[in-house]
């Protein structure tokens, strides 16, 4: 289940890079101190399985750094990527004994974990945690509905642009920056993974990325380092505007 890391190797809660977006975002000093008593860190290497669907989960967690994928396997063995876990996203469900999806580290991942039973008890006594978790769950629901629109109605070009915009928005949010103008991000997925996630072929993904690059919507250094010269133009290519698009 990954490598457990001593607390001394990581920043305190107040210095955490996801502090303003995580499940503990609204916690007061005494509440953070209580969370410190039940938390620990786990790190996973790229490609490592964090949990399998149906596994018993004795923890819930926030992604601190890195990217993971949520995958569902059908009865005939086919697999479908159904979601991404980006920094500050929450893993696991209070009150649920087992994992609903396979969770796999796409890059190296560091997670801030909480022992599930004490966390569930804290939720009952700490409204700030319960309120924030509800808010995150509703955001996740909105994102899922937007993703249904993307998969069902958007063109291949719009799908690629939308995915890049989602990653760029999250990057900006984590670094407390406004979206707009020129932005630089690293794509966490290979083109094969993008094809799987978006329901496209590898050839289509490569062709559309090349077209976006040729037309100056993005520029690439290697296969993953992306510069977005004009974020509003990227949103236009995604079929969104500066106030719309998927919640990420």
Annotation keywords:
248 residues; Jelly Rolls; Arc Repressor Mutant, subunit A; four-stranded antiparallel beta sheet; 23% strand; globular
Q: How would you summarize the topology of this molecule?
A:
Elements: E1 3-5, H1 29-36, E2 39-44, E3 49-51, E4 59-65, E5 68-73, E6 79-85, E7 90-91, E8 102-105, E9 109-115, H2 116-125, H3 127-153, H4 156-174, E10 183-186, H5 191-198, H6 202-214, E11 219-221, E12 225-228, H7 231-238
Antiparallel strand pairs: 1-2, 2-9, 3-8, 4-7, 4-9, 5-6, 5-8, 10-12, 11-12
Helix pairs in contact: 2-3, 4-6, 4-7, 5-6
Please provide a written account of the structure:
The chain is built from 7 helices and 12 strands. It folds into 2 domains: 7-148, Jelly Rolls (Sandwich); 155-238, Orthogonal Bundle (Arc Repressor Mutant, subunit A). With 248 residues, it is an alpha+beta fold.
Q: Give the strand order, joined by hyphens, for the main sheet.
A: 1-2-9-4-7
Strand-pairing-aware structural class? alpha+beta
Rounded to the nearest angstrom, the distance between the terminal CA atoms is: 27 Å
Q: Mind telling me the C-alpha Rg?
A: 18 Å
CATH architecture label of the largest domain: Sandwich
Sheet bearing the most strands, described? 5 strands, antiparallel
Helix content: 25-40%
Mean pLDDT: 85
- Helical segment tally? 7
CATH fold label of the largest domain? Jelly Rolls
Low-confidence stretches: 1-8, 242-248
Q: CATH homologous superfamily name of the largest domain?
A: Jelly Rolls
Shape category: globular
CATH class of the largest domain: Mainly Beta
Q: Tell me the strand percentage band.
A: 15-25%
Tally of DSSP β-strands: 12
